[in-house]
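Hi team, as promised in this morning's meeting, here are the two structures we talked about. I've kept the exact order from the run log so nobody has to guess. The first one is mostly here for context; it's the second one we should focus on when we meet again. Sequence first, then the predicted structure tokens.
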Amino acid sequence: MNRRDFLTTATAASATFALAGCNDSNRQAIDYSKHPEKKSEDEVNGEAREGTLGYKKRVNINRNKKTVIKLATSWPAHFPIMGTGVEKFAQRVKDVSGGSLEIKLYPKNTLIPALAVFDAASSGQIDAFHSGPYYWKGKNSAFSLYSGLPFGFTAEEINSWVLFGGGLELWREQYAKYNLHPFMGGNTNIQMGGWFAKPINSLDDMKGLKMRIPGLGGEVLAKLGVNPVLLPAGEIYTSLERGVIDATEWVGPALDIKMGFYKVAPYYYSGWHEPGSILELTFNKYSWNKLAFEHQSIIEVASSEMNANMTYEFHAENIKAFKKLKELNINIYQFPKDVIEAGKKALKDVTTELSQKNSDFKKVYDSIENHLELSKEWSNASLRYFLNER
């Protein structure tokens, strides 16, 4: 409220209190039918005016201003689900803000290389980015945990930990050291174990394999003798085709089938390394703090919508793509039991080692483990029973 409005309101209030002091018996009711209000142009045109029944006040303090946010992604333009999800988010922000807030998108390599968006946002070269936290484990090993954990959280469980189990507070505390402010920006849901050029019949078949796999999953497989490789999406197929790598994980049927991996690596395995991987929408902290509160609120709501929609879209598209896999006569395989058991042991070794080396990692992992143990008990009594009986 500006000074003039305050003075006007104060004067009106004083007059009201003064009238209230008069003798009630001397007051007469005012017959408003004898003093009809003149209709405004808006009311004549069918729109309710402020103070009248049906009026809905719209507050847009930034109506005459325009803020532009530069947001780079790690995905190609119009990339299914992840890329298009960010595009829908940008449009939603623009619509809800009445055009006062615009997010200008830069798909991978149009402004910033796919895996350089973290540094670009940290330094203020861009205002925000959309990517995956496990890509930055070289900055801090704890960051990989915000994407998820092998044999760990499902999409539903990790969302509950981030939003209601202390995960978001830890994430923002640790990202703040890099001048960043993160939000959840989607979830791939459970991912498949990957495409292999040759079948995996035992743990011995894993040894010496060159496999494109990021995050903690890569570190766990390294304990099994795999050589993990980090490659951007555009290089994976040709690397498989030329034998530069022997296997790759990507996401799930919906995106994997579009990449054509089945043509060069026909053995497709169910997964346990990424049961519910978070994607992130992260802002430069200075850019975030200088936004109007109204714009911050719009982004918070729109990012929450994107997080949910992307999760559900992955599921919807995966079930359709899974049917197509069958039509292409692609079989789904499960890793041998000795690979599973070795993977669980390797996970324990990796998390113990990283906890000893990095207090940030230990802090986050302890929080995850506490939440996960509680969730397992409930899931075993409810979801596991239901799925077994369905």
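And here is the second protein, the one for discussion:
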Amino acid sequence: MLNTGGVKWLNKKKHILFCTFAREIDCFMDKLPYREFIAMMQERTREADVPYSGSFELTPLCNLDCKMCYVHLQDPSVKQRMLSGEQWISLIQQAIDAGMMNATLTGGEAMTHPAFWDIYMYLLNHGIITYVKTNGILLNEEAIKRFKEYRPFQIDISLYGCDSESYVAVTGVDAYEQVVRNIQMAIDAGLHIQINITPSRYMSPWTERVMTLAKSFGVSVLVNDGLIEARDDTGRKKTDFDISLDEELRIKEKRKEMFSSGYSERLCYFMKNRNRPRLLNKGLYCPAGRSDFAVNWDGVLLPCLNFPRDVVCAHPLRDGFRQAWSEVNEAMKNYEVPQACHSCELNDKCHYCPMCHQKVAAKHLCDPDFCNYLKAKFRAEEKIEKED
């Protein structure tokens, strides 16, 4: 059942659009693949400026110490600045009132937040489609028992190695046996599990073995395309843990070979929406700040989790969620794409992302290093396709 509580604050025009779409869905829901339904939902809520999907970064703290993590902090004083369970629940209720129907709990390690279960149950009790991202360490028998009784839509488990040596190299902790055991217990319990892999320089000696291990579980596997630039307060730099373009392309080919059917099902419809002709003068094609939003661990609302704050950010704890969403939504609808993009040879393939151009996004410019990397990547991929 659709959660229509969020439309009550919308104006009449938007309310009519939303209800019309609900009737459309009712007519062909039995014929429409679920992932296409989600993509359509995202598109229609974008048109109506409804914050359909939210990511809640409950904490920057973690029980691992991954060397490539873009958010993890080790300073224990951070606990004093983290939002309480009551504050998270208040923001979540305001987001639901504004139309949110889909939520992701992430971190750090989301399950280390003292009020994780209170926040999680609040979402489920309000009919929200809920995803949980975890490293799997706390996905023990007790947690699986609770998840089995109160099921999330999906649990994404990050897999960082294929043995003890690789786990220590990537995360600093020998959690291999514990994580593998917990993944299998969760699968045996009938929970909807997806395994996520994030290749990095630290994983390089074992990446293909990690992919093979992930495939052996017989569940959906996501191998991330790239790494995110670490936030300034982490003290990490992407250049220290990124992989070479050659290695990235090798992993991509291996991914196609191992997970081709899953990837085509998951991405084909979304790519139809991404592969649009020529850029707009204003606004971005991605859902960030249009139908999606993120709230960082310190309570700041952004279009997505690592969006540059000097471009846009808002403060829902101070101003209320509705006002914060309106500020972010307007900024994203009116964001001016760099002029260089309009004459770029790749402007029908590469749609500008401020997160990828963080150093200059506030000036509406392109980062030449990132542009050169993408051009080299596209040329290499075209060459591989021709050879195949």
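Starting points for discussion:
The radius of gyration is 21 Å.
The chain has 14 helices and eight strands.
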